């Protein structure tokens, strides 16, 4: 969400985070203010404006707090996307990232993914509903069963917990149990352990350097930890959220004067001692992960081995996460992402020490593939209720919805929902009859079934792949393939990859997969939406052929080299058009389209050039009969010659030749006369073969009454019942239509679009928008065609 020009321009996300912290952290601000004015130039002006609007509420400096009062700031009511807030921040001059985090506490409705509620790593940094809820969320997310949920700092521990008056809706929650378990699962490998060891060494160097220049800061941290208070690091609330406490140790809570405090054990209060223990843990994990066969054991056995070898008590490890955060705040570390390996190690130790049940420690020597040794250690959460429990204890109303929550009686047990009020399966009704099921039971001698008995049969998976291949070749629109489970999907996709099915599918469709990884799925979903938008706009893009190059490139159909070559061809088309050489421009545009289709492997939904002859053969008999009629031959002046399949370029066609002689004469004068008389006129063209270059050139030369309204009219989407047909521009008496995915033989390339176009034009209905009227009976269709 960053809008700072120097930061947002960075390609690496980690670099963006580091630069942001360097320009916004409070301890950086203090250093800048105490030095020359030139050194303060590194501060982010957008964050400064945000800070000025909100006020120095979290400034630990007493004098600054006394003088700086919190200022009221209100953003207009409305619905805001992240992009809307970026635009507003750029216009008003405040940081959209920090403003969004502040607005989360005051918003009436917040829409985000499950991780902001279920994953303690994410929920701590979201800062939803203020400090008290933040503390409860971060600590309570990992409280053991039967334990009291720890209160936030400075909250009376004897006070009865009150539910927050909010409604949490988990939509499409059929996989919520997997998400709950994934949120509390930690995976490390040898690379993670080695990088964590490097992190420890760097922190040791930082501590040594700090001792030389500001040892008092380390002593102050130890005193704060002894009192059970958060370290006075000079960081704002936003800074603290970067490394916010994610796994709060319940047993470390001591009641002092009715206030709950988190007290760090004595053997990890000194920074040197804590880092020494972390080195021992990394050494233990380095040896523990070296296995020859898969191993599974409980957290207690894992902790027992660690304690017997390194003499580190489990109660000490419960404080690892809190202690690491405190130390990094004290050392004023800004590149926190560099310490993610060490953070993972601390998370693993804290989780394992907090939970004796509901977790398992899994070690796999070959996690990726058999024979490839790359051992991996995973602390796997096996109980979804652990992550869900703090949610149902915090919020009064929690709703789960999905079309596939079955059986309903299973989910309360999986998620530990002990006070279910309503559990109901609703009937689903469709507004219109839009489902046309095609039931396939077998392929040759193999029964197609997704039953448990057949799921490991590779032949069944291959037959499903063959069925999908045949479908995508004839279905022009998108195809969604559902699997009965993610495990089954992984098995089938592996078979499809080995057999080449995926490669063949990719020649016809852009393929997207849903994965367990939230980031990957989010990126895939974004690309899928962009592909849908590009496909929906292909008529408009093909009108300007340079934009159609972007269409190929964005969908991943061509690479950068092919894109550059096509752009060079388009510049040639533009040059020819500017010189008035329309015919040569037409041929050049056609050549560019041929090049793009060839480079992309002919993957289009309606690739008329790949199956045009086959398609025409279907109509050939009907067209031959139609053109043989005496009245048709007389009206078209074809002399009764026999129709032949082809358009005059693929094969000789006497009908086309006669039509050329009669109709393809200079008609500019006649067109101007017709349009000047305000007679409704429609010109249409397919966008595949470049012919619209000539049409646009001709229309640019028209000078008749009423042309100005057409020239200034906007180009609008023309939609059919099921998918977009193209684009239309209407003004005065003239309507110009671009038909998507079609050559100039629109009736044969896109018969459905041609019928819709003629139906609307004859009945004086606009082509802009969607045709909501039902298709006409067969008798009417025949009349329209005639």
How much beta, percentage-wise?
Answer: 5-15%
Q: What's the helix count? A: 37
What structural class should be given to the helix and strand makeup?
Answer: alpha+beta
Provide mean pLDDT, rounded.
Answer: 72
Global morphology = elongated
> Major beta sheet, specifics?
5 strands, mixed
Sheet with most strands: strand arrangement: 11-14-13-12-15
Q: Number of DSSP strands?
A: 15
- CATH third-tier fold name of the domain at 186-228 and 263-382: Fumarase C, Chain B, domain 1
Helix content class: 40-55%
CATH class of the domain at 186-228 and 263-382: Mainly Alpha
Named CATH architecture of the domain at 186-228 and 263-382: Orthogonal Bundle
Cα separation of the termini: 58 Å
GO biological process, one term: proteolysis
Cofactor: [4Fe-4S] cluster
EC number: 5.6.2.3
Pfam family, one: HBB
Structural overview:
- Residues 1-220 form the Helicase ATP-binding domain.
- It catalyses: ATP + H2O = ADP + phosphate + H(+).
- It comes from Perkinsus olseni.
- The protein has 786 residues and is α+β, with helices and mostly antiparallel strands.
- It is built from 37 helices and 15 strands.
- Among the domains are: 1-26 and 76-111, no CATH class; 186-228 and 263-382, Fumarase C, Chain B, domain 1 (Orthogonal Bundle); 442-535, no CATH class; 613-657, no CATH class; 667-763, Rossmann fold, CATH 3.40.50.11320.
- Strand 12 (716-719) and strand 13 form a beta hairpin.
- Helix 9 packs antiparallel against helix 10 (130-140) and helix 12 runs antiparallel to helix 14.
- It starts with a helix and ends with a helix.
- Mean pLDDT is 72; it is low at 34-41, 56-71, 129-160, 229-262, 536-547, 604-615, 647-652 and 773-786.
